[in-house]
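Chapter summary example.
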Amino acid sequence: MTSTLITGIGLLSTQSEIDDVRDAAVVLDGDRIAWVGIGNDAPAADDRVDVGGRAVIPGFVDSHAHLVFGGERSAEFAARMSGQPYSAGGIRSTVAATRAASDDELRQNVHRLTRELINSGSTTFEIKSGYGLTTQDESRALRIAREFTPETTYLGAHVVAPEYADDPTGYVDLVTGEMLDACAPHARWVDVFCDRGAFDADQARAILRAGMSAGLAPRVHANQLQHGPGVQVAVEMGAASADHCTHVDDGDIAALADSGTVATLLPGAEFSTRSPYPDARRLIDAGVTIALATDCNPGSSFTTSLPFCIAVAVRDMHMTPTEALTAATVGGAKALRRNDVGSIKVGARADLVVLDAPDPIHLAYRPGVDIIHQVWRAGAPVRRAADER
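The structure predicted for these 389 residues follows.
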C-alpha cells in the first residue's frame, strides 16, 4: 500500500477537532488518512505532492441528489422565470421521460452528473430514485444508482404515480408492498415527499414504517412548498434528515434541535424556483444541525455544484462562510450518518479538495468561478489541475 505526503498546504480546514491548521500537511495511506499536522513535523511517505500554499478542505458530502432521470425541463424553468409558480406536479413530466429512457441512457446521464459532482469537489453523494413510480422503473433506477454510490435512496413516494391519480391509497399500498420488496435490496434509505401535492402525514408514516421494517433508514422531504407536518414526522420517525425545511415554525425548530435529525437545506431549489430561502440563521441559532446539498434534479435545482450552494447560502441565507462549509462537509456526513467522511482526521477516508485559493472563504467570495484545483477521493487523485494532467 502506497503512502502519499501532501505538503505545502497554506491553510488546512479539517472540519474536525483540529481546525484551520496553517503550514500543514496530510499523509494518506491507501484510501485512509494516516496523519494530520504541521508540515515540518510530517513523517516520511512513499510519494510527495506539494500544493503550493493552497487551502485544503474535506471533500464535500452531497446528501440529497436525484440523478436517475430522463429528459430535461428547461422550458418549465423559463416559464417560472416568467412568473409561473413552482409546484410538485412538474415531476410527472420527468416520470414520462424516465420511463421511456433505456438503461444505458439513464446510466450515461448518471455518469455525466456524478463526474460533475466529483469535479466540483463532492466526493460522497447520495442518489435517489423517484422518477419511475412503477416497480420496474424504481428498482432499475436504484440498481443503476448503486453502480455509482452506496448511498442510494428509495423514493417511490415522490408523488403519486399518474396511473393512481384517483387512487392514492392504492399507490401507497404499492409503494409499501410490491415496489418496496423489489427496491429494498438496492437501497440504504427510504424517503417520502410529505408536502402539498404529494403525501400527507399518515401516508408518510406508513411508507417510512414499511421501509424501516425492510431494513431501510428513513429520511423525509419536508416543508418545501408550505408549512405542514413533514418536519414533525421526520423527527417522530427518527429520520436522519428532514430535507428542504423552507417553511418551519418554532415547534418544528425546537423538535429538530432536540433530535438527531439533520435539517438539510437545498438553496439551489429556492434559487431555481424564486421561492423564499430557508431561515438558516434561525435554525443554526436554535442549535439545529444543518447540512447543505445540491438537490440536483432536472426540474427545480439542476446544479451539481456545492460551491455554488455555499455561495448562495452565505449571500442569501445569512450563513457565515465557515458555517456553510461545515454544512457541506460535516453536516452532509451527519445527514448520511457517516463518520468516515466530511472531515480530515486520522482514520477517515482520504477525501480532499485542494482549492486554487488561500482560504475556503473564496468559495463564497468568488461565486461562479471554478476554484477547485485538485480532488482526491479515497486516496486517489480524481481531478488534477490542468497544468498537472
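To summarize the output: The mean pLDDT is 95.
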